[in-house]
Amino acid sequence: MSRIRVAERSQVKLKIEVSGLSGSGKTYSSLLLAKGLTTGWDKVGLIDSENGSGELYSHLGPYKYIDIRYGADASLVRDPHSPESYISAIKEMASAGCEVIVIDSISHEWDGIGGCLESVERLGGKFSAWGSVTPRHKAFLDTILNTPVHIIATARKKSDYIIGEEEKNGRTRQKIEKVGLKDVQREGTEYEFTLQFTIDLKHLATAEKDRTGLFKNTTPFKLDEATGKELLKWSNSGRGHISEGNVGRSDDKTVVRRISDNPDESDSGSEFYTGDPDQKKILNVIFDAHNIQDKEKKRKAHENFLKMKVLMKDLNDAVREIGGA
Predict the structure, then answer these.
(1) Considering 56, 127, 183, 292, which has the largest number of Cβ atoms within 10 A of its Cβ?
(2) DSSP structure class, residue 76
(3) Helices and strands, number each (H, E), in the chain
(4) Of the ranges 79-88, 246-255, 298-307, which is most confident?
(5) Dist. CA 133–CA 19, nearest whole Å
């Protein structure tokens, strides 16, 4: 059977980077953007690596919050900015039902305490040390890309000063301006995102990268809830289902798809159905294991499960194991 098919955009979970200098409003703008991407603040989660500054905006609404410096027992974490620390926090937020996760910021995963640069230094600072650190960094990026929720990641920019000119009272004079240079992250990380916004010190955003086409040729603007709603409309406008990987065997000729909102169309009561009777049985095994009998509760349980009880690849491995592949 040929792999060739007609290209068709599917619904997607957006991965957005918001970068800027300190004081540009990255966190505040990202939270407003997150609110527009979902139905309420209780569906928004903020992972904070900025010394607790993420709670400064709690007046906006009851969003979920993790201070990455602390563990579940409220004790200080030895390496709060390690890739594994971020991965754990992302999984925890997704399991809690967050539909949008704000990571503030990913710069510390690169140069924070226990981050990639420090990890290399601990291993002697030699080039060969990257052999063990790079896979950990890749796992961090893969978690962002493969977690089936919208993710907004802020990044700091290195700063510099330039001498420009301004006109005042009919006279031209020199003016020193603070500008942002490169993101504090591994070079090329910005290419992994669907969109990449840069915010200046006037809190105005420019779309440096835009796969949606919504912000082409736009003048700098403020990121807000309305921007999030516009992005949500675009992300939901594609074909039925967000596929983060095929679930089950590659030769079973099934692709996970979204069915009608009518629960009677699936005797498993789940929101997703592969079309394979064996895989439907697997879904029912999961429900039975959690003693879930009510059809509507089955729908909700499976929806939450797919919102990242585990990574999609972990679910894939589980299905393969149960199926005896």
Answers:
(1) 183
(2) B
(3) 9, 10
(4) 79-88
(5) 24
- Confirm if 195 and 203 have CB atoms less than 8 A apart: no
Residue 300 CA from chain centroid, whole number: 22
Cα–Cα dist 71/238, whole Å: 39
Tokens, residue 240: 């039925």
pLDDT tens, position by position, 294-324: 666 666 665 555 554 444 555 555 555 555 4
Q: Average pLDDT of the chain? A: 81
CA 97 to chain centre: 13
> What's the rounded Cα separation, in Å, for the pair 115 and 166?
41
**Omega cis (within 30) before 105:** yes
Average pLDDT over residues 119-129: 95
The pair of structure tokens assigned to 234 is 């675009």
Residues in contact with 8: Cβ distance below 8 Å, sequence separation at least 6, in sequence order: 238, 239
CATH among 2.50.20, 3.40.50, 3.30.1050, 1.10.490 for 15-235: 3.40.50
The boundaries of every CATH 3.40.50 domain in the chain are 15-235
User: What does the pLDDT read at residue 161?
Assistant: 60
Of 270, 277, 279, 324, nearest to 299 by C-alpha is: 270
The three-state secondary structure class of 165 is strand
Distance CA 134, CA 123 (A): 13
Look at the pTM and tell me if it is higher than 0.85: no
Is the Cβ–Cβ distance between 19 and 176 less than 8 Å? no
